[in-house]
Structure formats: C-alpha cells, structure tokens
C-alpha cells in the first residue's frame, strides 16, 4: 500500500490553477524527489501533502485513509524548509524540544532522550547549549532537521533544504540526509530540489513536475535512459 496517494489532486488560488490534476503514489519507505522548473508547483504540492494548504479537489490518502480534512498536526508529517526558521532566543536544545513540549503526555526524560538521539544522528550534540546565531548555516539546518526528527514523523517533506548552503556543506548535508533515510526504518521522504546531482543521488524515484502536472515518474536510471520527453531529458541531464 502506498504511504501517500494523490488522486486527481487540484489546487487553485482564486482563478489561478496551480496544481492541475496530479495522480501520484509514494511508497512506504521511499525517497521520492520532486524536480521541475521554478513556479511549476513543487512547494504547493508539499504544502498540500502537509495539510498547510487545503486541496481544491481530488483525494489524498495516507496508508489508504482519506486525509483531505485531517489537520496538519495529525498527519505524522514533518517539514524542513530552505530557511531554517529556528527560534533565535532559544538554545538548540530548546528549539529541538519545543514541538515535543507542546505534545500532551511527553515527560521531560522522554523529551531529553529524543532530542539527544536526534542530536547524535546529526552530530550536533556538542551544540545543544548554543543559540542559533552561534552556529554556521549548515549546523542550523541540521538543527532544523533534528527538530523534525524528534517528532518521530512517518513522512519527511524537504523543500530545497540545502539551497542556502555553500557547495561543500551541501554535499555533506546531503550525505547526512541519505544516511538518515537509511537509519530511520521505513520513513518516507519527499524532497524538492532543482539540483540534478541531489536528485540523481538521493532518489529512489524522481517525479518530474511541469506546470502543475506530473510529466514523468521513474527511477533515476529510467528517467536518464528513457525520458518520455525532451523536457524530462533536460532536467535529468540525459542526452535525448
Ligand atoms: P515551485 O515551488 O515549483 O517554484 P510554487 O508551488 O511555489 O512553485 O508556486 C507555483 C505557482 O503557484 C506559482 O505561480 C506561484 O506564484 C503560485 N502560488 C503559490 N502559492 C500561492 C498563493 N498562496 N497564492 C497565489 N498564488 C500562489
Ligand atoms: Mg518552491
């Protein structure tokens, strides 16, 4: 069964159709990458999946259950954005624990255990007492990812998480995210990027979006060897 299934999902803002009938299955444990030109609807699609925006029509299912009207906090999803959006006046520890302290029934020890585990996974344990401004961009983005991990989500949504980092940090953090996906058993990830190398190296499958539609879905190899269109070939870097 698909972790996430979209059936003819549409989204309009006023008169403007942005997502124009998307059918897509994301498998449990899969690393799915969305690529496509600026403005084609990648971020909007993530926001629909997270519940931050309501779909205009169609159906969205998680583990086979309809979630069209389910509140974002009940979806078991964590989202990591391009800008880290950490609370500047809170330490790294407090930033990572904050979401958990809002959940009912989580004791101090449980929270501490989760934060430290996430910090270990991302190698930021030594920074837990610092403020965000005392960290580099890469470290801050790790904190943002760590904060997402502590919520123990079933699904991670990443919206161009590395695009504010310099090249070397991008590679290091990309490897970290790949490792995370391996370590977190059966966690499903959807990752938006416009970086071909990121897409090709991270993805189990790539979904190429174009102007609110799905143009093609396949493994990096399938898209590279058998692109359906010049558009896809252009995005994947294959010679068609
Ligand atoms: P991408 O992430 O692929 O660059 P977006 O999903 O951000 O694209 O945007 C897709 C289109 O939807 C763009 O034309 C954008 O202007 C429009 N759009 C996104 N959010 C809104 C909104 N809240 N109101 C009106 N238009 C929006
Ligand atoms: Mg975007």
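-> sequence recovered:
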């Amino acid at each position: 069964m698909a972790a996430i299934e979209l059936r003819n999902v549409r989204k309009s803002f006023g008169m403007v159709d942005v997502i124009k009938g998307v059918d897509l299955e994301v498998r449990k444990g899969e690393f799915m990458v969305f690529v496509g030109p600026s403005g084609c609807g990648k971020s909007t699609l993530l926001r629909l999946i997270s519940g931050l925006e309501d779909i205009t029509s169609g159906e969205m299912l998680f583990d086979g259950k309809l979630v069209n009207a389910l509140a974002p906090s009940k979806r078991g999803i964590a989202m990591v954005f391009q800008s880290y959006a950490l609370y500047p006046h809170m330490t790294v520890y407090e930033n990572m624990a904050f979401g958990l302290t809002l959940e009912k029934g989580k004791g101090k020890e449980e929270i501490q255990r989760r934060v430290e585990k996430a910090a270990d996974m991302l190698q930021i344990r030594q920074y837990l007492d610092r403020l965000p401004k005392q960290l580099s961009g890469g470290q801050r983005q790790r904190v943002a990812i760590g904060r997402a991990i502590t919520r123990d989500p079933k699904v991670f949504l990443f919206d161009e998480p590395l695009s504010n980092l310099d090249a070397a940090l991008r590679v290091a953090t990309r490897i970290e995210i790949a490792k995370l996906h391996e370590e977190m058993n059966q966690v499903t990830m959807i990752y938006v990027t416009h970086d071909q190398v990121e897409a090709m190296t991270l993805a189990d499958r790539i979904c190429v979006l174009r102007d609110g539609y799905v143009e093609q879905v396949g493994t990096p190899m399938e898209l590279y060897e058998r692109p359906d269109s010049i558009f896809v070939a252009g995005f994947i870097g294959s010679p068609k």
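Residues 42-43, 159 surround magnesium ion (ligand 2) (CB under 6 Å).
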